[in-house]
Structures are given as C-alpha cells and as structure tokens.
Amino acid sequence: MRLGLRLFFAFFVVAGIAAYFVLRVFATEIKPSVREVMEDVLIDSANLLAEQARADLRAMPPGGTLAGTPLAQAVAAYTTRPVDATIWGLRKQRLDIRVYVTDASGRVVLDSGTPTAVGQDYSRWLDVARTLRGEYGARVTRDQPDDTRTSVMYVAAPIQDGERLLGVLTLAKPQATAAPFIARAEAKVLKAGAWMLAASLAVGLAATAWLVHATRRLRHYAERARAGHREPPPRLPGELGDLALAVGEMRERLEGRAEVEQAMRALTHELKSPLAAIAAAAELLQDPLPAAERQRFAAQVATQVERLRGLADRLLELSRLESLRALDAPAPVALAALTDAVLDAHAATLAQRHLQVQWLRREPLTVAGDAERLALALSNLLANALAFAPPGSPLELALWREGAQVHWSLRDHGPGVPDYAWPQLGQRFFSLPAPGRTDRGSGLGLAIVQQVMALHVGRLALTPAAPGLRATLTF
Fold first, then answer.
1. Per-residue pLDDT tens for 430-462?
2. Which H or E element spans position 154?
C-alpha cells in the first residue's frame, strides 16, 4: 500500500473512532441529563403545589377527599387549559403533568389523571412511601412493562403543617414528552458528527496530499542529486526539512570527494612546472658553470621554491576556510577603515606601478564579520587588480548601501577576462597570465574570496567593466 493511502486510511480510522465516541457520549450522558433536568423541574413544581395544598388538606375532614376545594378546582382547570407554545422550534399543544394527593396514610384524596383512583391506597408506591418516611420520594414506572417509551417519572413532595405530616403531593410526567427534544438534539449531534467526520477526512486528505507532495519533492531532489545535478535542497518544514538538509549535506560530501579528486589532479599539474624547473636548474648547477650562470639558476630555484611556498600557504588557508561552518564570534567591521589598511599593505606596489586609488563612493558602513578574514579577501582582490592593471591607470573603489545590502567593489582598467575564461573564473588553480608576464598565479585567490564571503553569508560577483574587471562583494 502506498504512503498516501496508508496515511489517509489512518486519518479515516481516527476520525471514525472520534465520531463513535461522540455518539456514545450522547447516548450515555445527554439523554440521562435531559431526564435529570426534567426531574429537577418536577421537584420545584411539586414543592410549590404542596404549599398550595396545605390549607385544603388541613381543612379536610377525616376520611374525606379534596373534591371541591380550591386546589381541586385549580387542578381541574389546569387539565382543560388550552396551550399552544413553540419551544425552540418544537410545538407543544397539551399539558401532560398528572397531579395526585394522598393523606398521611397514603390514601388518594385527589387525582387529576385517574379520578377513579380516589380512595385507593398508594402507600406502597415508592414516591409516597419514601416521602411518608421523611425521605425523597421518586420513581419511574412503565405504563406498559415491555415498552420503554411509556415510562413515567413520579416526583413527590411532603405536605407539612408545622412538624405534622398532612400528606403527599406527587407530580407525574411521561418521559416521552422529552423525546422530541432528545431526538432533535440527537439529530443535531449526528449532523455535527457527520460534518466533523467530513472535515476530518478533508483535513486528512489535505495533510496526506501535502505530505505526499513534500515526499515526492524530496525523492525528486534525491534522484536529481543521483543524476549529478547540483541544486539546493527543497525547503520543507519539520523533519522533512531536516531530512532534505541531511540529503543535501550527503550530496555535498559525495561531491566533495569528486572535487578533491579534481583538485588533486589540478594540484599535481600545478606542481609539475615548478618542480621541473627546480630539477633542471639543480641538474645544471651540478656542472661547472660561470658565476653569472650559477647565480641565474640559483635565483630560478629560489623563485620556484617561493612559488611552491605561496601555493602551499594558499592551499592551507583555503582548507582552513572550507573547514569552517560559520564564524566563531562575528564583530562589527568598518569596511572603509579595513580597505585603507589593505591599501597601506600594498602601498609599495601601488607606488611602483604608479596606480591611483579613486573612491567613487565611500559611506561609513560596518558589517558583522571577521576582520582578519575580510582583510584576506580584500587583499586577494587588490592583488589581482595590481597584477592586471596597466601602470599609471586608476583603481576605482566604491562602498555603499542599497536597501538591506552593503556593497564593496573594486575595478581595474586592465585587459579584462576573455570570453572562454568566464565559466572557469574562480575555480581552483585556474588563472590567466598577467600582462607582460609569462608566469601565472596560483589560481586560489578568488576561491579564497568566495569562501570568505560564504562565511559572511555574502557573495562575490565578477563582471566585465570595459575596460577591465569589476569585483563586487555583497553583504
């Protein structure tokens, strides 16, 4: 069974169980509660009528009845009284409370429902018997023993004359009169339950569809990563988002292995040239040579060794940067002051090549970061510009804010970048020969700048400036 069907089936089962328990609560709680409310009203009414019956029962002669008394007349008028009331949409057109009164011995002296019961002994009925004993008297009796719909509730109240018990007044009401109200409530509960079940199923269907869609996005990303496509992991909430990030990290590590292999091949290629030059010079130095030739070959060895040392230093720096996931303790860094410090460090080269630094825009802006690593990035960009800028040309600097972003840019007026080189610009060990020079750089400077900007949650953009190249750092 597919994941979506399993989830939807689980939602369906949960919603069905919830609906079952709602109906069960209705059957076990709501119906008895309606009867309890009806009993409460009958208790109040019975006690009120018991007070009205006290004077008539006290004046009744021994062995007599309440016929013709004000209470009997009021009860008779009640039974014939017309009524037409609408109670929350249900129509009531008849009065259905039965009233009967017994004396202190349990003999019936008044009965609105069964006049022939006057004179009978009701002392054994629970409502009368308990009330005569000073207890709360009530009972539920079926008119037809096999039919629960014929149940009648009887509630009694004592008729007191001070401390003397004169008799008992009982009110009887068929429980079937509450049936329409219970049925209506049951219909409403069933309707609400059906809506709840439908809403639960709709929510379950929507949640299932969303989860299946998110899972499919994650599967598509994994399949694309397996096919060799480089793209960021999909943004998903919760555990699925964590899983997507984990898959992304796994892809990066797997790609990192391929990059390491590629970097090792490139590094091997880079090392061949200086090692070959050192080996050739060393072989020649073993032979007798004039002092000038020996000095020239020794200088060549020193130059190649310095080149290898610089390559090793840059590789170590790049490795340290790549091992960091985030900055340890970012602090405010004033970019303009940091740029001035980097320019001072390259002042000798600037003066030697007669390069003029021009600030096109200079705003007092700070960013949160690591001053040492930012200085390394700016120094690498400035070194590239110094290598390619024609003598006497200007170097244009700019520092400005645009919305929530801070931009720092450096432009030289050199030959720029050929079209074929743009796709490889910034890759490790890729470099272009500087004007007037046959050797090339290590090809690691821009890679170091990119790593520094990644740690500062920024980016490096290289764009043609016609003439020259413009490097822009965006924070």
1. 566 666 555 555 567 788 788 888 888 888 888
2. strand 151-161
Task: List pLDDT tens digits, range 128-152.
Answer: 999 999 999 999 988 787 887 788 9
Report how far residue 351's alpha carbon sits from residue 386's, in angstroms, rounded to the nearest whole number: 11
Count of Cβ atoms closer than 10 Å to residue 270 Cβ: 21
Domain final position from 140, 164, 184: 184
Confidence (pTM): 0.43
Structure tokens, 145? 């023993």
- For residue 366, tell me if it sits in a domain: yes
| Distance separating alpha carbons of residues 282 and 298, to the nearest angstrom | 8
- Residue showing tokens 């391929």: 258
Q: Reduced to 3 states, what is the DSSP secondary structure of residue 451? A: helix
Q: How far apart are CA 304 and CA 298, in angstroms?
A: 10
Which parts of 314-393 are beta strand (E)? 331-334, 356-362, 366-369
Q: What number of other Cβ atoms are within 10 A of residue 168's Cβ?
A: 30
Range of the domain at 113: 3-184
CATH code, domain carrying 424: 3.30.565.10
Residue 306 carries which side chain, given as an amino acid letter?
A: E
Residue 324 CB burial class (10 angstroms; 0-12, 13-18, ≥19): middle
